[in-house]
Design brief:
It is a single chain. This protein is of the alpha/beta class and 382 residues long. It contains 15 helices and five strands. It has a five-stranded mixed sheet, with helices on one face. Helix 3 (43-61) packs antiparallel against helix 4 (70-85).
Length: 382
Amino acid sequence: MWILITILSSAILLRALSRRSKLLLVLYGLSILVGIYTFALFALVIAAHGVYILLLYLRQINTRPIKLPGNLVSYALSTIIALILFLPWVYLLVKNLSKARENLVWMNFDIGIAALVKLWGFNLSSAFLDIGLVPKIQLPIELPLTSIEFMNSPHLDQFVRNYPLMTPVYFIIKILVVILILYSIFYLIRNAQKRSYLFLCSLIVIPFIGITFQDLIVGGVGSTIAGYRFFVPVIIGIELAVAYLLASQISRERNLQTRLWQVITVFILICGLFSCITYLKADSWWTLRYGYHVKRIAPIINNSNDPLVITKFESQVLAFPHHLNPEVRLITLNDLDKFQLPEHTGDIFIYDLTPEIRESLENLPGVRIEEVNADDRLWRLR
């Protein structure tokens, strides 16, 4: 949905600016309202659009009297109205700020700039080649194994044990794709019309800065593997830049250089096709926090006696129905203080609960916790 709204709002904005249509700017306001209600980080797309219009305005200052053009005013009004209509959601975010911070605690450990740059390149190149292998990252810090940050961190699991690691050949191809991305942006700036490259560069740079700023300055992992989805507008801009480069090169007069670019184009298309086929055949993927865990523990749960699973109310719940038998009961633990252990004669499993919660459950009368698979965060109540 975020991809669709990003493309749709961008297309409407460009159309409105070229035709000087206030009706289209109203439609643009509606599109960004839908976008920001769909995903709060859509605000980065709005910011990119604003920077683009501001750059167009500054470009005209040297040739025209300094006067706010109608398009700038209409854009500002459309954006302000959309943001005002978004205030109820802002109120809810502020009201639940402490809970939001608790849910995002996994983003707060530092892995070093070198690892960040490596993972940014991995994320961006995955738009063209992604067969489910992830880079190996050596964490430069030691995390306490009993902390909630460790237990809730999907990143640490990905770095250490969860996902298949990339091979040297795959790593080299990824580097070549990153080089192609960087060159395509350089080529875009050197050869495309100024309005075109200003828009695409705004769509790439502004969201990228917004996503990576905290990790780069303060330290964190929000822009790494589990933050891949945050790069949607950046990837859209990069794909358009690469498409412009390839289309420009293969449409030139036939020579050795043109044939080389034709080979590169075919190779990129094959990489994309192979990535899609691999993804469709996979049970889970590195962009999914819990898929690998659920896939491994599902046979244990399915083969047990009348199983009941207790877990947190988070996104991992969505992965369970695809792997567990229909008769497996699932209970989400939202509030430990109000939780009562159900009467159940079969096997009771607890999955992905913090040490503090497990300790609280173990303090209940007649309850003993037995480790089943600690790597995949699965225990059994006795």
